[in-house]
Amino acid sequence: MPTKLEIQKQIAKLGDLPKILQEAVDGLNDEQLDTTYREGGWRIRQVVHHIMDSHVHGYIRMKFTLTEENPTLKPYDENVWAKQKDGSENPVEDSILVLQGLHKRWADWLNSLIDENVWKRPSLHLEEGEMSFWDLLKDYAEHGEHHVKQILGLREKMNW
Ligand code: NI
Question: What is the number of domains present in the chain?
Answer without folding.
Answer: 1
